[in-house]
Design goal:
The protein is 15% helix and 28% strand. It is an alpha+beta fold. The longest helix has 16 residues. This is LPXTG-motif protein cell wall anchor domain protein.
Length: 741
C-alpha cells in the first residue's frame, strides 16, 4: 500500500539507526530503490554482498558498512542480504545486480574492521545485520563478528552461539512486525579490547516493555489502543480448525524446514485452486480439464494452529476460542502482499516445475512446493535427471488421471512464482493473468467458505517417492523403496502414516513399519524398503506401465495408526513371470516408527485418530471432486472408479489404463520390466480417502444464531489503493479489471 511509505515513515520516526537491505525493498525495481526508497529513508540500508548499484554501495560509510561511535567505542555494522536474492527478484534486477555469499562477505568486512588499518575503517565491536534466518547461518561467522541481528524467516531466535573460530556470538532474531524487541548486551573491555556477551533476549512488546518515555516522548507503541482500533476486524474468526496445519520441522525446530512437504503449504495451495472457481466470470481462466494450486513453502511464515493465538477482547468466552482461526492469524501465515495470478501451461511444464524443487549443490538443496488436493506426484529417487543428483518425476496425477505432457493445466499461484521471480522457472511468464487479488485474502476467503464445518488435515501426502526394480533374475519378486510417506512435525507423525501394507485382491499379505526419522535437509521423511513377491493368485489385467501386455498386480498402501489408507500405489509384473508359490515379502531391518530421538510432544490440537471421513465442501454447494465452475473433475482422493478395484477381489485391472512412461508424461511404449503408479486411496477398499479432510460438522457453530460470526475479505487493487471489507456472515468482493503482467 502506497509503496510502503507508511512503513518508512514509522521507521524514520523511530529514529532507526541502520538497517540491512531486504528483498521487498526491490519489489518495484532497482530504479525505485535508488530513486525513492533510499532517499526517503533517514537511515542507511546496507548490502555488503550486493554490487551493481552505486547508490546502494554508497549507503552508510560505503561497501555495506556503517560505523557509529557510542561513548567512545566504535561499533561497526555490516549489512548483508540473503544469498537467495536472485531467486526472489525479477529477471531485470538479476541482470543488474550481483550477489556474493553473505557470510563470506560479512566475515571479510569484519576482518577489515579489526585489522588495525585505519584506511579501510576500524571498529571495536562488529555487528552483522543479516537478512537471513539466524539459526541457519549464525555459527558460520568468524571471530571478528560479535553479534548478529537476523531476519527474513519470521522465527523468533535469541541465543549465544559458537562461531566458526570457537568465538561467542550473540544472535537475535526478533520475530516479525515489531512483535518483539531484540536486545543484545555486549561488554567491551577498553584495556584488553575484548568483547564478551552479557545477554541476548527477545522482549514481547505485547507486554509493553517499550514505553513512550523510552523514545523521548515519541508515541510509538500502545498495543491496547492499537487493539481497540484494529483487532475488531482482525480478531474476527474466519474458520474453525479441528487440528493444526503445520509447516515443516527439521526435527529440532518447528516451522523452519521449507524443503519438505507440509500440511500448511498444501492447504494454502488448495485455497489457490479454489480461487480459480471464485474469480469473477469475466476474469475466469480459459476452459481447461485441470486446475491446480501451487504454493512455495517458504512463503508461509506461521502455522495454522488449533490453539488460539488471537485476542478476542472478551467478546468470545475463553473456553471457546481454541479452534477459531482469525483474519489476523491468516495474515501471520501469509504476511507478504503477494499478488495472485494464473497461467495456462502443459503437463510437461508442470512436471518441469515440480522437478525444480530439488537443487543439487545449492543451500537449501530442496525448496518444496505445496500442491492442491487434486494433485498426486510419484518421484522415482532411483532414477536421476541428466545432472545426476535430482530425482525423476515418474508420474503426476491430477483429478485422478495421469497427466499427459500435452494436457493443458491452469496453475494458480503468486505472480512472483509464475513470472520466475521466486527461484522457479516457468515458460510463457508474460501470459500470467493478474486480477488484483492478494494471496492471504484468497486463503481467508477459502477458509471462510466452510461456514460451520471443522477443518482437519487428511495427512495424505501429495508427493511420494517410489522405486520398484526386479529382484535378481526373478521377475515376480521386486525390490521396493519408498520415501516421503510422512510429515516432519512430531504431532503430525502421530496422526499420519505409520506403516506400509501390501494387498492382493482383498487380502493383506505384508506389512512393515515406516521409519519416521526426519530428513533435515530434504523431503524424504518417512522411508521403507523391502522385497515383495507378487502372489500367484494376484489380480491380472492389461499392463499399465510394465513392459508386457498382461500383468499381475498388487496394491501398496500407507496407513495410519487406525488403519485408514492415506496413499495407494499399484505394483505390477508381467503375468507370464514365474509366480511365487506363496505370498511373501522380506524387508531390510527397520527401526520402529520414531519421529525424533526426543519424546513426542502431545498434539496441540484435540486428540484425534485421524481425519473424519466426512468431507465438507467450501460453500456447501460443490462437491470436493468438482473443479472450477462446478463440473466434476474427479478428485483422485475422493472418487473411486465404479468398476473393479484392487479391493474387490475380482481380479480385474484398475479401470484406468494410464500409458505414461516411467518418468510421467504422455502415452508411450512401456519400457520398464515392472510397473508402478498411483491409485486413489479408496481404490483398495481399505479406508476412506478425502481430498483435504476437514472433519465433520459437529463442531461449535461459527455462524448464525448463538455462534461467532465469520469474516470474509474482498480485495481490489486500483490506483495504488487496497480496499479491505470485513463483513459478518457474508462477503463482498470488490472487482478489478484484469491486469496482464
Amino acid at each position: 500500500m502506497n509503496h510502503d511509505e507508511g512503513t518508512l515513515d514509522v521507521l524514520n520516526r523511530l529514529r532507526m539507526g541502520v538497517s540491512a537491505l531486504g528483498v521487498h525493498e526491490l519489489d518495484h525495481g532497482l530504479g525505485d530503490l535508488e530513486g525513492r526508497v533510499l532517499p526517503y529513508a533517514t537511515f542507511p540500508m546496507l548490502a555488503a554482498n550486493v554490487s551493481g548499484s552505486d547508490a546502494l554501495s554508497a549507503e552508510g560509510d560505503g561497501r555495506g558498512v556503517f560505523i557509529k561511535e557510542v561513548d567512545g567505542v566504535r561499533v561497526g555494522f555490516i549489512g548483508v542480504v540473503t544469498d537467495e536474492l536472485p531467486k526472489l527478484v525479477s529477471s531485470s534486477i538479476r541482470a543488474q545486480l550481483t550477489v556474493a555469499p553473505a557470510v563470506a562477505t560479512a566475515n571479510a568486512r569484519a576482518a577489515d574492521l579489526k585489522d588495525g588499518d585505519p584506511a579501510n575503517g576500524e571498529a571495536d565491536v562488529v555487528v552483522v545485520l543479516s537478512h537471513e534466518d539466524a539459526a541457519s547461518k549464525a555459527t558460520s561467522f568468524s571471530k571478528n563478528v560479535d553479534a548478529v541481528v537476523a531476519g527474513r524467516s519470521h522465527v523468533s531466535y535469541a541465543h549465544t552461539v559458537t562461531g566458526a573460530d570457537g568465538n561467542e556470538i550473540a544472535v537475535v532474531q526478533p520475530d516479525h512486525y515489531g512483535l518483539k524487541l531484540g536486545m543484545v548486551r555486549l561488554n567491551y573491555d577498553r584495556d584488553t579490547k575484548k568483547v564478551s556477551v552479557v545477554n541476548v533476549e527477545n522482549r514481547d512488546l505485547k507486554q509493553e516493555y517499550c514505553y513512550e518515555d523510552d523514545f523521548g516522548g515519541v508515541d510509538i507503541f500502545s498495543y491496547k489502543r492499537y487493539n481497540k482500533m484494529m483487532d475488531l476486524g482482525a480478531a474476527r474468526p474466519v474458520a474453525q480448525l479441528g487440528a493444526d496445519y503445520l509447516r515443516g520441522s527439521d526435527g529440532v525446530t518447528p516451522g523452519v524446514h521449507t524443503g519438505t512437504e507440509s500440511t500448511a503449504s498444501d492447504l494454502v495451495a488448495e485455497s489457490y485452486r479454489y480461487w480459480l472457481a471464485d474469480i469473477d466470470p469475466m476474469e475466469q481462466p480459459p476452459v481447461s480439464t485441470h486446475y491446480v494450486g501451487v504454493a512455495r513453502a517458504d512463503d508461509l511464515k506461521a502455522d495454522f494452529r488449533y490453539k488460539s493465538t488471537g485476542n478476542y477482547h472478551g467478546e468470545v468466552p475463553a473456553d471457546q476460542v481454541d479452534g477459531l482461526f482469525t483474519v489476523d492469524e491468516v495474515r501471520n501465515v501469509s504476511p507478504d502482499d503477494k499478488a495472485m495470478g494464473y497461467l495456462s501451461i502443459t503437463g510437461a511444464d508442470l512436471k518441469a516445475l515440480i522437478a525444480q524443487q530439488w537443487r543439487p549443490g545449492a543451500d537449501p538443496a530442496s525448496v518444496q512446493l505445496g500442491l492442491s488436493a487434486n494433485v498426486d506426484v510419484i518421484v522415482d529417487a532411483a532414477a536421476q535427471t541428466d545432472g545426476g543428483a535430482a530425482p525423476t518425476i515418474r508420474e503426476i496425477r491430477v483429478d485422478g488421471q495421469v497427466l499427459g505432457d500435452t494436457d493443458t493445466v491452469v496453475v494458480a499461484s503468486t505472480t512472483e512464482l509464475l513470472t520466475s521471480g521466486a527461484g522457479f522457472t516457468l515458460p510463457n511468464g508474460s501470459g500470467v493473468v493478474n486480477v488484483g487479488s492478494l494471496g492471504r485474502d484468497i486463503t481467508t476467503n477459502y477458509l471462510a467458505s466452510f461456514n460451520q464445518q471443522v477443518l482437519k488435515p487428511s495427512y495424505t501426502k501429495r508427493q511420494v517417492g517410489v522405486s520398484v526394480t526386479p529382484k535378481g533374475a526373478s521377475t515376480d519378486t521386486v525390490s521396493v523403496t519408498m520415501d516421503s510417506l510422512a510429515y516432519t512435525h512430531p504431532t503430525e507423525q502421530v496422526l499420519g502414516a505409520r506403516r506400509v501394507r501390501a494387498v492382493s485382491g482383498d487380502k493383506e499379505f505384508f506389512s512393515q513399519n515406516i521409519d519416521l526419522t526426519v530428513d533435515r535437509s530434504g523431503p524424504t521423511t518417512g522411508k521403507v524398503s523391502f522385497d515383495l513377491t507378487i502372489p500367484a493368485d494376484a489380480p491380472t489385467g492389461a499392463c499399465r506401465s510394465a513392459e508386457a501386455t498382461t500383468c499381475r498386480w498388487v496394491t501398496l498402501e500407507s496407513v495410519d495408526g487406525v488403519g485408514r489408507v492415506l496413499n495407494s500405489f499399484y505394483v505390477e509384473v508381467p503375468a507370464d513371470a514365474s509366480p511365487g508359490v506363496t505370498p511373501s515379502a522380506t524387508h531390510d531391518a527397520q527401526p520402529e516408527p520414531s519421529a525424533t530421538t526426543s519424546p513426542t510432544p502431545a498434539p496441540s490440537a484435540e486428540p484425534s485418530a485421524g481425519a473424519d471421513p466426512t468431507t465438507p465442501v467450501p460453500g456447501g454447494g460443490r462437491t470436493a471432486s468438482q473443479g472450477p465452475g462446478g463440473e466434476n473433475s474427479g478428485d483422485g482422493r475422493v472418487t473411486a472408479s465404479p468398476t473393479a478395484t484392487p479391493g474387490d477381489g475380482s481380479g480385474a485391472a484398475p479401470s484406468e489404463n494410464p500409458t505414461a512412461v516411467p518418468d510421467g508424461g504422455s502415452a508411450a511404449t512401456p519400457t520398464a520390466p515392472v510397473g508402478v503408479g498411483g491409485l486413489p486411496p479408496s481404490a483398495s477398499g481399505g479406508g476412506a480417502g478425502e481430498s483435504e479432510a476437514r472433519g465433520g460438522t459437529s463442531g461449535r457453530s461459527t455462524s448464525g444464531s448463538g455462534g461467532w460470526s465469520l469474516a470474509r475479505t474482498g480485495v481490489s487493487l486500483g490506483s495504488g489503493v487496497i480496499a479491505l471489507t470485513l463483513i459478518a456472515g457474508g462477503y463482498l468482493i470488490l472487482r478489478h479489471r484484469r491486469q496482464a503482467d
